[in-house]
Amino acid sequence: MTGQESPGMRSWFRSGEPWVWMNAAAVALSILAVVGILSLIAINGFAHFWPRDVAQLEVTAGDHAGTLLGEVVDSDSLDRQRYIEATGDESLPADVAMISRLLVKTGNRRLNPPDFRWVFEQHIANTSWPNDVIAIERTEWGNAYGFIEAVTTREGTVTGEASFEALIAEIEAAEALREEIVTLQRGSLQSINASLERLRLEDRRIELDLTLDEDARVAALSDTQSRRQTLQAEYATEENRLRELAGGFEGRSITLRLADGRTEELPLITIVRAWQPNALSTAGKLAHYARSVWLFLSEDPREANTEGGIFPALFGTVLMVLLMSVLVTPFGVIAALYLREYAKQGPFVRLIRIAVNNLAGVPSIVYGVFGLGFFVYFLGGSIDQLFFPEALPAPTFGTPGLMWASLTLALLTVPVVIVSTEEGLTRIPRSVREGSLALGATKAETLFRVILPMASPAILTGVILAVARAAGEVAPLMLVGVVKLAPTLPLDGVFPFLHLDRKFMHLGFHIYDVGFQSPNVEAARPLVYATTLLLVFIIVMLNLTAIMLRSRLEQRYRGVEG
Fold first, then answer.
1. Is the Cβ–Cβ distance between 143 and 54 less than 8 Å?
2. 320 near 406, Cβ under 8 Å?
3. Are residues 376 and 399 in contact, defined by beta-carbon separation less than 8 angstroms?
4. CA-to-CA distance for 82 and 529, rounded, in angstroms?
């Protein structure tokens, strides 16, 4: 019947089955979108570490005419008009509509910038893959590609076929030497510097102490001066040792012949590692891949965060999330307990619940502004006035740092914990409370030994949601503690070991900085994918840990064997 629904169609809609199918389709589309995004991030993130072969290209025309050495990292096509606009070449045959081009990472940025070049395939006369080409990762100026002319060691100069093995041996020795230097800098030298700073503050504290008479002040300053001289002597000894270690790099270098025939001498101290990509077997590439992943996870960033690793950002993210979880859990649970177990239910409590629910929708940058104003300037400034007057005007806690960032994110996520805990408390039958009280338990004993353990799965659900949100937040952290590059970690071997006043790095901000503030966009793009993949992995692992704990607690309080 035209214009009318059939009885069968009406009954089908009334049964609700169409809405079931629509919900199923929406869920399926959501899962496909999530899987697609994660797949894109994973493919580009994992591919960043794979050692590509290095091509030798003979380019006959264009801006890059000559011989090029580099990795082919991308390709695309231009239509005829865009090609003419880019090159000014109008000699294309009339039947050519699309022109392919390759993005080649040529490296050698110091002598021959830029290190990424677009080369049109029709300008390439010949492509070869020489086995003796070498790729070198450096501490600055990015990668270098070329052919070994000579390796200069302390024993002499090595040339010919033995030069690559000599270079690898030198790099391994240099790596051990570099690790010893870093250990010395971050160990005894850092500890001595921290002790000297404490003595400086102690001198200032003595000068500000009006209760001391002149003789006591002179005696106290004399004591600190004596300790300072001892520390300075220790520092001089360690500095001489550091100078001796750094001298171990003198006279050790590699002479590299570039694609255009020029040579460049690279000091060994600037070389992180070297490999012959075209000569690597599959096993060798897998070993190189594993090594690249490890360096990415364990090294500090270099070259404006476009090279090196992300360990400080990884460490800062995990530490901040853990501190935030420790702070948000008791505040959220106590607030929920009061609202559900102690507060008299009425309009005022309902208003509080509405306010808590609304807080969950406040933009995160607002929390950042509040954290900067209240935590950093007001609370931190007051702490400095009361407990660290000797350090003023340089702030100790009156400046953005790890503690204020954790507190700000705890404030941001506490509504989630409150709501989740309240729901868990609501699901516990009233008979459980009454039975505990009937057996002689006090209300506090009932609460802490019966109610809270049974509500712990719901509490962990709130913590899981809080962790998932806090780990990915960036906007508030930019105001209360995160920086582009932190010289030291918040946790080290110097008393008090955990430095809550220090600024730190964060994976989310690192992604933003590398992706949008990097001076070398092409070099930064794969790092953005790799860092994003790591951040997603950390969030998943933290959530899985909390989910497993929640499952064990649910089984325990349901009387099921764990």
1. no
2. yes
3. yes
4. 29
What is the distance, to the nearest Å, from the Cα of residue 192 to the centroid of all Cα atoms in its chain? 29
What does the pLDDT look like over 43-63, one tens digit per residue?
888 888 889 999 999 988 877
* C-alpha dihedral (230, 233, 234, 240), degrees to nearest 10: 180
The pair phi, psi for residue 101, each rounded to 5°, is: -145, 155
Contact in structure between 380 and 395 (CB atoms under 8 Å): yes
Same domain, 189 and 333: no
- pLDDT digits 0-9 by tens, 416-470: 899 888 888 888 888 888 888 888 888 888 888 888 888 888 888 888 888 888 8
SS3 content of the chain, % helix, strand, coil (to 5): 60, 15, 25
Instruction: Looking at the structure, tell me whether residues 269 and 290 fall in a common domain.
Output: no
Q: How far apart are CA 18 and CA 15, in angstroms?
A: 8
Instruction: Assess whether 96 and 44 both reside in one domain.
Output: no
Structure tokens at 504: 């730190």
Q: Which two tokens stand for residue 94?
A: 């009339």
| 3-class secondary structure, 255 | strand
Distance CA 183, CA 421 (A): 46
Name, in order, each residue with C-beta under 8 angstroms of 149's C-beta and a sequence gap of 6 or more.
159, 163, 255, 256, 257, 263
Residues 551 and 480 in one domain: yes
Give the domain CATH number at 87: 2.30.30
Whether 304 and 518 have beta carbons less than 8 Å apart is answered as yes
Q: Are 391 and 346 in contact (CB under 8 A)?
A: no
Instruction: Compute the distance between CA of residue 182 and CA of residue 191 in angstroms, rounded to an integer.
Output: 13
Q: How far apart are CA 527 and CA 119, in angstroms?
A: 23
Amino acid (1-letter code) at residue 107: G
Which residues in 300-370 belong to E strands, given as ranges? 301-302, 307-308
Containing domain of residue 222, as a range?
151-279
Domains identified in the chain, total number: 4
- Please tell me whether residue 476 adopts helix, strand or coil conformation: coil
Do residues 314 and 507 lie in contact, with contact meaning Cβ atoms separated by under 8 Å? yes
Closest residue by Cα to residue 427 from 454, 399, 395: 454
Rounded-to-integer distance, Cα 115 and Cα 111, Å: 10
pTM to 2 decimal places = 0.84
Same domain, 268 and 354: no
**Using an 8 Å Cβ cutoff, are 363 and 349 in contact?**
no
From residue 43, give the alpha-carbon distance in Å to each of 47, 226, 491. Answer: 6, 60, 33
pLDDT higher than 80, residue 560: no
Cα radius of gyration (the chain): 32
Most confident of 93-102, 236-245, 357-366, 521-530: 236-245
Q: How far apart are CA 312 and CA 315, in angstroms?
A: 5
Cα separation, 529 vs 511, in Å, equals 8
Least Cα distance to 310 among 561, 43, 526 occurs for: 526
In a domain, 20, yes or no: no
- Which one, of 161, 460, 451, lies nearest residue 442 by Cα? 451
- CATH code of the domain covering residue 474: 1.10.3720.10
Q: Are 147 and 256 in contact (CB under 8 A)?
A: yes
